[in-house]
Amino acid sequence: MDKRPLTDLIVLDEISKGFNSHNVRTDILIQADFSVLRGETIAIVGASGIGKSTLLNLMGTLDPPDSGKLMFEGIDLYSYSEDKLARFRNKRIGFVFQFHYLLQGFSTLENTMMPGLINGNKKSIENHAVNMLERVGLKNKILDRVEDLSGGEQQRVALARALLMGPDLLLADEPTGNLDKKNSQSVHELILELNKELDMTVIVVTHNSDFAGMMDKRVTIEEGKIVPTI
Ligand SMILES: Nc1ncnc2c1ncn2[C@@H]1O[C@H](COP(=O)(O)OP(=O)(O)O)[C@@H](O)[C@H]1O
Ligand SMILES: [Mg+2]
Predict the structure, then answer these.
(1) Whole-model pTM over 0.90
(2) For 148-159, how does the pLDDT look when each residue is reduced to its tens digit (9 = 90+)?
(3) FRET label pair with 132: which of 25, 155, 200, 205, CA 20 to 30 Å apart?
């Protein structure tokens, strides 16, 4: 039985965020509160343009709020300097996007090792990257150039790269938005297995209702607030 206490990994405290473009103001979040438990899986769902990516990027420390606090294990992350925040992000948060952003011309292994090359030991990073690639089912492709892989395989490399530093939090923005049904399903299953195996909190933006249905919670954005949905 799982005896871990339920603790908050992330708390959004009265977060407001909007954009001004062409003299038009769009408010996305208005004094929104939200909390994410350690180990939880959450889907952010809803129509295009409601602010799902904005919310994910904000939680991933990529885009600061206009006001309010993002607490991660009780620490106000946006109070960090940019350098400190970048180090925190590199170690603690893994990202997967709809487009894989792999570096063409480099191998599967080299791409997976990238987040560890800033100040890690190359040999241990390489061993770890091989383990991660094995875990996502790509052991026989480690020396292939990423452009020679299928779309599903490329997204698995992106996932292995996101896992390299052992993040506490995986953020995925429409990770299977470009994949066919079969590849999507296997990536969905893989993400949920990794959540359990690695005790890694997972937040995904997805339009796939099957995938959203596999998560512990589903939320959307309504009138500036983050609200539960079916
Ligand atoms: N950097 C930006 N500058 C101006 N407007 C933006 C910016 N990022 C997002 N927006 C606007 O904010 C709204 C929400 O965008 P987004 O978070 O990408 O929505 P979703 O991911 O739900 O489709 C959209 O109207 C979008 O055009
Ligand atoms: Mg989006």
Answers:
(1) yes
(2) 999 999 999 999
(3) 205
